[in-house]
Design a protein that fits this description.
CATH class of the largest domain: Mainly Alpha
CATH topology of the largest domain: hpI Integrase, Chain A
Number of helices: 10
Number of strands: 5
Helix content: 40-55%
Distance between the termini: 60 Å
Shape: globular
Length: 281
């Protein structure tokens, strides 16, 4: 078929394509797509060629005044619309760049004492206890911990390799000696789960970038599996493949919230949603 005669991709499909070319995360992709949808609906589904700086300002003002959204939310919406016009539609909006981003309020961090941390950990069980202990002892961020692969834990050097962390950078952190044996015991159970998946015709895991094409068998190898897999298999939102993803962070956050409540750490109960990273303080 003549390329000139091929149907033009839909706007949101084009947004997804451009974001994937830039290796942006699926979470950012989902958030940007939702903001673009809201922007279009807000203006009664008018064609984007009719919408410019004034309409974007109106939408941001609606979020700030009528919806009373947080500064981070407003800035995310603005970033999504800037990406749409500059990277997808390739349309410059010079006056829009002069809009000041919403200023995030400065908050004092919540710092747990050792006794409070021990009390919270005592209220957690099994995998949740191990994950939060690893967060506290190694300095990992929440998703860095949940995305940890078996091959990136070095028991000889007592260290953990964080791959593709914040800013797409790799780094090394320590593996606490007290967690080495519990982690080994946990991974024995995970390996049995992985072997059961293989027997059922599954057992593959998501691999970043083009590694799945470069190493076709790697996605089923033990070393590439997540240390903290989800209890059930799910459909990959991009490829449609049925895989076992890592634990969902929201479940862990809820468990920490409940543990904080049981431990009666009253000075942080009013600050939910409480990030698990608070335990690193």
């Amino acid at each position: 078929m003549n390329p000139d005669l091929q149907p033009k991709p839909k706007l949101l499909d084009e947004v997804r394509t451009v974001m994937r070319l830039r290796h942006m995360s699926i979470r950012t992709e989902e958030a940007y797509v939702q903001w673009i949808k809201r922007f279009i609906v807000f203006h009664d589904k008018r064609h984007l060629q009719e919408l410019g700086e004034a309409e974007i300002r109106d939408f941001l003002a609606y979020l700030a005044v009528d919806q009373n959204v947080a500064a981070a939310t407003q800035n995310q919406a603005m970033s999504a619309l800037l990406f749409l016009y500059r990277e997808v539609l390739e349309k410059e909006l010079p006056r829009l760049s002069q809009i000041e981003r919403a200023t995030k309020p400065k908050r004092l961090p919540v710092v747990f004492t050792r006794q409070e941390v021990q009390a919270v950990l005592a209220c957690l069980q099994k995998t949740n206890h191990l994950v939060v202990s690893l967060l506290y002892g190694s300095g990992l961020r929440l998703l860095e911990c949940l995305r940890l692969r078996v091959k990136d834990v070095d028991y000889q050097m007592n260290q953990i390799m964080v791959r593709d962390g914040k800013g797409e950078k790799d780094r090394v952190t320590m593996l606490p000696a007290s967690l080495k044996e519990p982690l080994i015991t946990h991974l024995k159970q995970v390996k049995r789960l992985h072997e059961a998946d293989l027997r059922d015709g599954f057992g593959s895991v998501y691999l970043p970038y083009a590694l799945a094409r470069k190493y076709p068998q790697a996605e089923k190898e033990w070393g590439w599996q997540y240390c903290f897999p989800a209890p059930t298999r799910s459909v990959d939102p991009r490829s449609g493949a049925i895989r076992r993803h890592h634990l969902d962070e929201s479940g862990l956050q809820k468990a920490v919230k409940e543990a904080v409540r049981k431990a009666r750490v009253s000075r942080v109960l009013c600050k939910w949603p409480l990030p698990c990273d608070t335990l690193l303080s």
